[in-house]
Amino acid sequence: xxxxxxxxxxxxxxxxxxxxxxxxxxxxxxxxxxxxxxxxxxxxxxxxxxxxxxxxxxxxxxxxxxxxxxxxxxxxxxxxxxxxxxxxxxxxxxxxxxxxxxxxxxxxxxxxxx
Length: 114
Ligand code: FES
What we know:
The protein is mainly beta. 11% of the residues lie in helices and 39% in strands.
């Protein structure tokens, strides 16, 4: 039994997400926004802006950041931290790319529900 593989769940294919776009994944613990940058890097963040709950999956991706669609706060996709003068933190989740498949770390999800 390979624990390293088992702790990840498949959430779709890289091709499912447009470049500079995002896709929302529903999990028992809530919605997670999975973003793809222009360089085909993939990041997973809670799909909820810490400001007033805006859906970050509908935001604008630029570089390795996303701008919230509601009031334009900008968050790092890498750390989930607000950029510029704003303060706030979005929860991030480990995601990895295996070939074309996207895998999300489930232990992080379980920890949320615990
Ligand atoms: S809800 Fe995201 S900036 Fe206000």
